């Protein structure tokens, strides 16, 4: 991965075709700038400050006006510890792709695979075993692998390793 970690990035982060709801995530200092020309907030917070916020919104995209919810997390409150926005709307893949394109026209770039998780790891939000578990959840083929990855994500491997480290340091 050769991307700059201070770029504002965007990607579809919800499941595949057929999902009722879809989610587009934008992360980086310019996250809000990437949506403010095509999303109208119905109940905007006084200012996006230090608290996370949710606003009902309308997205004007591909000649349509769509209801959506916009979630905003300021620095240190998001998965990546960067200002982040998630747009939750209808799960139509072409529609979500158009939202990504609109964000890119306004300064974002497409996130590389795993880039949100890389940023979370580098910001200390996840340890290495949890970052690997995120990939395992995404790539899981079957219930057994999914359960194993979810357990790892919940600290199934990190917790015993941290305990062993503490005991070794106390020797």
Helix/strand class: alpha+beta
Radius of gyration: 18 Å
Number of helices: 5
Could you tell me the mean pLDDT? 84
How many domains make up the 3D coordinates?
2
Supply the CATH class of the largest domain.
Alpha Beta
Helix content: 25-40%
**Strands across the major sheet, in which order?**
3-4-5-6-2-1-7
- Please report which band the strand proportion falls in: under 5%, 5-15%, 15-25%, 25-35%, 35-45% or over 45%: 15-25%
CATH superfamily of the largest domain: Probable tRNA modification gtpase trme, domain 1
Please write the string of helix (H) and strand (E) elements: EEEEEEHEHHHH
Uncertain regions spanning at least 5 consecutive residues = none
Number of strands: 7
CATH architecture of the largest domain, please?
2-Layer Sandwich
- Examine the coordinates and then state which fold CATH places here, giving the name of the CATH topology of the largest domain: Gyrase A, domain 2
Shape: globular
**What characterizes the major β-sheet?**
7 strands, mixed
End-to-end distance, in Å? 40 Å
